[in-house]
Specification:
There is one protein chain. The protein has 688 residues and is α+β, with helices and mostly antiparallel strands. It folds into three domains: 163 residues, no CATH class; 229 residues, no CATH class; 259 residues, no CATH class. The longest helix is centred in the N-terminal third of the chain and has 26 residues. The chain is globular.
């Protein structure tokens, strides 16, 4: 019955959109807006019907390629200047306020694209009905001798669209996260002929020569190499459970997140996880008003037609976010988790493949783009904290784990194949050597009460990091000896600093965080919390501060230093220097190429009570700081749901020393080289 009603809504909406395109009633600019959006939705109706009538592997590839071109050309850089998704173009056409609403609605129309491939009629219908509701309010205004609808009418349409559909959208979001029966991508990966790269067009993501080249290169590699890559990935995941004393046998599902083109490795990983008793869940990165994650891609994803488009729309929720909406979304999220609480309990966490090598992106700040007010920033931070706690209630942090591995994209340049092979080597380094050397570092650091870090040359870093004291040096340790498990590749020792007494300035000349570039990033800490920050991306200091607050602090007024670590993977550093790709390394690898400092939550977020041990049998006691301890009295203030690493590369590092309680300094790194006896082997990579 419900399906019949939905089909009737689908047919009626399709008919009405056809009519509004064929029989123009509105002033030219408005009519062009509706015609453009209507044509997009009608094409999606066509894709949806073809997809329902014919299996994806039977649809001619020429048709799939044509859809790939037509559906994404509107936001590609060459056409974006005259796209209704562009807030600047919309504001020029309709005025600032109306332009913001219409650009947001145009972007929401585009978010229906994946659902045509996945055969989800409801997601297409609700967006068609949103466009038709907007059209009706325009024609009503015209009939009342008004040229266009009022701003408040547009706001109400958008507000109630999000509010009304928050419940089914929350259910869909949670189901995609934990329900293995949602297997669109999984089936494509397991059943496609991966030797014929035309399979890429069946995902419904934007496909370019980059994804094709990546898939072809993987096809050229021996089966043993693919197995090595997949085994490193899945074994790291398994070891993550072993090293933290978590029972993987209680879990039933794992979520694989990856960039399209890596299917040959993912297929082998799926088989490996099956041997562990885990079914794989592979969901698409969300990009709608209900599921947008700023500029980040969480899920599987294809090429990005235009990073500026994502940046322009990262705060569209400012058009409707208020306290009532936050309450509504949290209620719907809890209801969804209750619906899937059994599946949530059995979920083991994500296994992530990252890609790197994209051209560093410095976005253009647009006054026409929507931005959150200070009150809305507070509301968003509040929502993120409560949603994170809610998720942890059903997918318990102390029972789940993760792993992350990264490989280069062909966009990295002509040395792609050499860099890819070098990355495989980095990801599969023999961990016993690093474990031994890192233990030498830890043995010295355990004697220290703080660490002193100073930059070299133009690097302005001057920091003191306070360390949590040991009660029993024979059985306790301050630093985790991190080898290749959850964070691949091997190579770091890390701790949660004591905030009181952690002071100074962190500076790095060039860094790439969460897919965005920063020049001369400088952060000041007082008692472990950020008190000031700057960069030189823009001419305006105000713009630079906003850029950092939005994308590093994630709208928080301050963040604590959640982690201090010393990266030991000099092989990765030398590889990056050899090919000139330092700025393009993902945090995952970059953090291993020098000391790094994370702002946000600790590495043990939501799992602080779980006892963790190093290979030498000592318990790692630095799992908390003064902020995370608030979970015992005020959980909403204990977590920030972010963790961003900033690395000082070896060549910008002047001195790193352990300071003992009596004031004596033991130098670990001097002028970018390891000088502590027992760690000199790490310098061999520099000499080679």
């Amino acid at each position: 019955m419900m399906e019949t009603m939905l089909w009737e809504r689908f047919e009626l909406a399709e008919e009405r959109i056809n009519s509004l395109i064929e029989n123009p009633e509105l002033p030219a600019s408005w009519q062009d807006f509706f015609t453009t959006q209507g044509e997009l939705l009608l094409l999606l109706c066509k894709v949806y019907k073809a997809r329902k009538e014919t299996p994806l592997d039977k649809i001619k590839v020429d048709i799939l390629k044509e859809w790939n071109h037509v559906l994404y050309q509107d936001i590609c850089e060459a056409h974006y200047h005259q796209s209704y998704c562009n807030p600047t173009f919309c504001a020029t056409t309709f005025g600032l306020k109306k332009g913001r609403y219409l650009a947001t609605i145009a972007a929401e129309m585009r978010s229906a694209i994946p659902y045509a491939w996945e055969g989800d009629m409801q997601e297409i219908v609700i967006r068609m009905e949103l466009l038709l509701e907007l059209f009706t309010c325009c024609t009503d205004a015209l009939s009342e001798n008004e040229k266009e609808p009022e701003d408040k009418t547009l706001k109400e349409i958008l507000y109630w669209y999000v509010s009304d559909y928050s419940e089914p959208e929350s259910e869909q979001r949670v189901a995609e996260m934990v329900d293995a029966r949602r297997d669109f991508a999984l089936n494509l990966i397991l059943t496609s002929d991966l030797n014929d790269v035309d399979y890429l067009y069946r995902f419904g993501e934007f496909i370019t020569e980059n994804e094709i080249t990546l898939a072809r290169y993987l096809n050229s590699l021996p089966e043993a190499t693919i197995a090595l890559m997949a085994d490193t990935f899945t074994e790291g995941y398994r070891i993550g459970f072993v090293n933290t004393g978590k029972d993987l046998n209680r879990k039933k599902t794992v979520n694989i997140r990856y960039p399209i083109g890596m299917e040959r490795v993912v297929r082998q990983a799926i088989r490996n996880f099956e041997v562990m008793g885990l079914k794989c869940i592979i969901y698409r990165a969300g990009n709608s008003l209900f599921r947008r994650q700023g500029t980040q891609k969480i899920g599987f994803f294809g090429a990005n037609p235009n990073p500026q488009y994502d940046y322009d729309h990262k705060e569209d929720e400012a058009l409707f976010l208020d306290g009532q909406m936050v309450t509504r979304k949290l209620e719907c999220l809890r209801s969804a988790f209750e619906e899937y609480k059994e599946e949530a309990f059995g979920h083991a966490g994500p296994a992530v493949i990252e890609i790197f090598g994209e051209t560093p992106f410095i976005p253009k700040e647009k006054e026409e783009a929507v931005v959150l007010s200070k009150e809305q920033q507070r509301l968003k931070v509040n929502y993120a904290g409560k949603a994170g706690s809610l998720t942890n209630e059903y997918i318990k942090g102390e029972e789940r784990s993760f792993t992350i591995i990264a490989f280069p994209s062909p966009k990295i340049g002509p040395d792609f194949e050499q860099i890819f092979n070098a990355t495989i080597r980095i990801n599969t380094l023999e961990y016993k050597k690093y474990q031994r050397i890192q233990q030498t570092l830890i043995d010295t650091l355990d004697q220290a009460c703080k660490v002193r870090v100073e930059g070299a040359g133009e690097n302005r870093t001057k920091l003191e990091i306070a360390l949590i004291p040991l009660k029993d040096a024979k059985s306790e340790t301050k630093f985790e000896n991190c080898v290749a498990d959850v964070n691949i590749p091997v190579g770091e020792v890390f701790t949660s600093p004591q905030l009181a007494g952690t002071n100074g300035v962190l500076h790095v000349s060039h860094v790439y965080l969460n897919e965005l570039e920063y020049k001369n990033l400088q952060i000041t800490f007082k008692d472990g919390k950020i008190t000031d920050y700057s960069c030189s991306n823009y001419d305006s200091e105000e713009q630079n501060r906003k850029y950092i607050k939005d994308n590093v602090l994630f709208h928080h007024e301050t963040l604590p230093m959640g982690e201090f670590a010393i990266g030991t993977n000099t092989t990765a550093y030398v590889m990056a220097r050899k090919f000139g790709i330092e700025a393009q390394l993902p945090i995952l690898i970059a953090e291993k190429t020098g000391p790094h400092f994370a702002v946000g939550d600790t590495c043990y977020s939501h799992a602080e009570e779980l006892r963790v041990y190093n290979p030498d049998g000592k318990e790692i006691i630095s799992r908390d700081n003064e902020v995370s301890l608030l979970r015992k009295t005020n959980p909403e203030e204990a977590y920030f749901n972010c963790h961003t690493d900033v690395t000082i590369p070896y060549d910008e590092l002047g001195r790193l020393s352990a300071v003992l309680p009596n004031g004596e300094e033991i130098v670990l790194i001097q002028n970018g080289r390891f000088v502590l006896p027992g760690t000199e082997e790490l310098n061999e990579a520099f000499e080679q």
